[in-house]
């Protein structure tokens, strides 16, 4: 994830970890992320906590390069 091409994935999973650790079951703050892909990953983390997606979906975002 250290490659610049994966910056959006890194951003999203960093926020996803925060969401999971906090147990945050709402989308507050996600709109402040810089990238669309980062926001999408963060939304998946909330959806996971709400039981609306599986761990496979949450962890299935591929890296580039």
Concise synopsis of the structure shown:
With about 60 residues, this protein is mainly α. The protein has helices at about 5-20, 35-50, 55-60.
Describe this structure in words.
The protein is an all-alpha fold and about 60 residues long. The protein has one domain. Helices cover about 55% and strands about 0% of the residues. It is built from three helices and no strands. Helix 1 packs parallel to helix 2. It is globular. It starts with 6 loop residues before the first helix and ends in a 6-residue tail after the last helix. The model has no long low-confidence stretch (mean pLDDT about 95).
Break the fold down into its secondary structure elements and pairings.
Layout: H1 7-22, H2 36-49, H3 55-59
Helix pairs in contact: 1-2
How would you sum up the major sheet? none
Number of domains: 1
Query: What is the helix/strand order?
Result: HHH
- Shape, per Cα inertia axes: globular
* Mean pLDDT across every amino acid position: 97
What is the terminal separation in angstroms? 10 Å
Strand content: under 5%
How many distinct beta strands? 0
Number of helices: 3
**Unreliable stretches:** none
């Amino acid at each position: 994830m250290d490659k610049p091409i994966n910056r959006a994935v890194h951003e999203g999973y960093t926020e996803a970890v925060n969401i999971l650790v906090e147990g945050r079951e709402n989308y507050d703050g996600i709109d402040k992320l810089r990238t669309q892909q980062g926001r999408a990953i963060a939304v998946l983390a909330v959806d996971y906590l709400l039981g609306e997606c599986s761990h496979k979906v949450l962890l299935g975002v591929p890296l580039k390069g």
